[in-house]
Amino acid sequence: METKENLTAERSLEIIRESIERSQRTITRNSSWSLVWWGSCVVFFAFLIAYLWKQHGGPAWNALWAVMWIVGYLGERVIGRHREPVPTTFVGRTISQVWGTFGAFMGVMGFVLGLYGCGLLPAISLKPGIHEGYAYINITSIISLCFGIASTIMGSVIRNRIVQVCGFIAGLGGFFLALHYPWAEQLYVMAAVAVVGLIIPGLVIYYQNK
What's the predicted TM-score (pTM) here? Predict the structure, then answer.
């Protein structure tokens, strides 16, 4: 009786393990075009906003990032119709939570900083006695670093080394590069982060599973 129970427990664990591994493989295959799509959206809008910023009115054009999220979401819905179906598992939920958290943090931060930039909120000043003036926040560096963390976690969850390495390089590389470029030039860094962290791993995954 005890032997049968042990075999049943071992078989249950094996089924769970196989289910997780199958889910990881399916999600990896399904993610290829999503990575390429979102990366392409970021690159296109980064160059578009950089051009409009330089030629027609300054940083107010950053509001177009909100349009990018809408375009990206609609494209993701189209891509989702052609994906291989996968049951809801811990792996899928974890990835959704990681990117959902990233999107929520970046969206709220961008909205609040946009209000500061438009003068709708009082400027953030540093404490007297430390340094007179205004605090400077390099949002491109912050976004790049948070993106790299989210991408690296995703790669760890689905056990894909390409996604891990590209996310690590894009996150840290974008963080430090953005510190060396002013204003509109940082948008080119954002485009590079998207290429390294999204488009390249997406294409590699696609051709690996072709």
Answer: 0.78
